[in-house]
Amino acid sequence: MFEGLKALPQDPILSLMLKYQQDDNPAKLDLGIGVYKDELGNTPIMQAVHTAEQQLLQSETTKSYIAPAGSPLYNQRIRELVFGADHPVLRDNRVASAQTPGGCGALRMAAEFIRGCSTSSSVWVSTPTWANHIPLLGGAGLPLKEYPYYDYENKSIQFQAMLDTLEQAVAGDFVLLHGCCHNPSGADLNREQWLAVAELCARKGLIPFVDMAYQGLGSGLDEDAFGVRMLAEKMPEMLIATSCSKNFGLYRERTGTLFIVGANGEQAANAGSQLFSKIRSHYSMPPSHGAAIVETILGDQPLNQMWQTELQGMRQRILGLRESLVRHIAASEIDGDFSFIEQQFGMFSFLGITPQQVELLRTRYSIYMIDSSRMNVAGLNAQRMDYFVAALADVLKSS
Ligand code: LMR
Question: Which domains can be identified in the chain, with CATH numbers?
Fold first, then answer.
């Protein structure tokens, strides 16, 4: 049975992480996988997470099963974080919520849910989008279509082309949007553009499907949720996948959430029951530990404050690194305008170099980034900035 199986290509992001780990050059620099790093290049456990974990160890009384939807209190607290506590969809009970195994679990369960609603709906994804969106959504059997998003030449969003392409979508199609900190480009819709997307979706009967994996790492917890909250006010139906991997640093604890907004309370509850049945038949119920940490932090005023302060520090460090990188490049022998890096948000930007130059960075300098030249800005630090910019200057001389 198995003898005819061929080895599949490795995942481009996870395999790069392994290559980095195996590299014994002490000067190595990891700008690949999207994890936050501090000034020392470490990905520490947040203090609020550590404290909540200690509290949990003392207070936890059982490891018995939970429901497919996960913890109701976790779901409520994340709902308030994402929508804002007094959002009309919460007042009207129009949201079904499920704690999921990470943002990936939320995306895949969203795909299974969509497939259960309709076999003819397509999901429109941005070009480019996060590499794992394609197998996560397409693997459930959904037809995927692409809309243009990032203009590599002008280093900005090709917004008119995006709208023009989405005019071809038909009622019942889903439009996957990145809530903030677009992965891989860092180029986010501004408020006017979000409103134009909402107008288009409403006019054509398209259903927004927002992936918000980086809330709080762009401009702020509320600012980053602008698109989600505005769409939820204007649209009768939508899906939202969120993750606690980045903003709580809970990567390996696999903690995420899927929200389904329905036209009214009854429809939302019915949709929720469909979703929970899908969950039961896939993994039965989500893992508990990460969500229990988040639930503890969000339900405790001092811990919540501690977490928000830490998150703000992470966000400001990334913004500072973006400014510093642009300044260092401008002061170097490198030609060209890299100021776009300062105008983008979150962990990622495309450096705009060729795959060959990316490879040279890796082979000559042990600097790791995805072949597309997506770099994780959070992997830089003040001490390594000169090394990085000198390496970049060197490889830019090779075509
Ligand atoms: C990334 O884009 O690097 C992260 O979201 C990690 C992953 O799972 O790909």
Answer: 10-45+303-398 (3.90.1150.10), 65-299 (3.40.640.10)
Best probe residue, ligand 1, of 10, 11, 13 (max atoms within 8 Å of C-beta): 13
Predicted TM-score (pTM) of this structure? 0.97
Q: Look at residue 202 in the predicted model and tell me its pLDDT.
A: 98
Segments of the chain assigned E as strands: 29-30, 95-100, 123-127, 144-148, 150-151, 156-157, 174-178, 207-212, 238-243, 256-261, 348-350, 367-368, 374-376
Task: Write the residue with the smallest CA distance to atom 2 of ligand 1.
Answer: 34
What pLDDT score does 398 carry? 84
CA pseudo-torsion sign 110, 230, 184, 127: positive
Report whether residue 183 contacts ligand 1, using a CB cutoff of 6 Å.
Answer: yes
Q: Is the CB of 348 under 6 A from ligand 1?
A: no
Q: Do residues 238 and 98 lie in contact, with contact meaning Cβ atoms separated by under 8 Å?
A: no
Give the CA radius of gyration of the chain: 21
- Please tell me the distance from the alpha carbon of residue 254 to that of residue 247, in angstroms, as a whole number: 13
Q: What angle do CA 208, 214, 220 make, to 5 degrees?
A: 100
Structure tokens at 244: 């606690």
- Whether ligand 1 lies within 6 angstroms of the CB of 35 is answered as no
Indicate if ligand 1 lies below 6 Å from the C-beta of 175: no
Task: Read off the pLDDT of residues 355-371 as tens digits, 9 standing for 90 and up.
Answer: 999 999 999 999 999 99
Q: Which two tokens stand for residue 90?
A: 């919460």
E-strand ranges in 194-316 read 207-212, 238-243, 256-261
**CA–CA dist 396, 264 (Å, integer):** 56
Which long-range contacts does 219-225 make (Cβ < 8 Å, 24+ apart)?
Answer: 219/180, 219/315, 219/345, 220/312, 220/315, 221/81, 221/308, 221/311, 222/84, 224/179, 224/180, 224/181, 225/82, 225/83, 225/84, 225/179, 225/180
**Coil vs helix vs strand at 98:** strand
Closest CA to 23 of 377, 365, 381: 365
- Known catalytic residues? 130, 211, 246
Angle made by CA atoms 346, 352, 355, in degrees to the nearest 5:
115
**4 CB-near residues (< 8 Å, 6+ apart):** none
231-248 confidence digits (pLDDT tens): 999 999 999 999 999 999
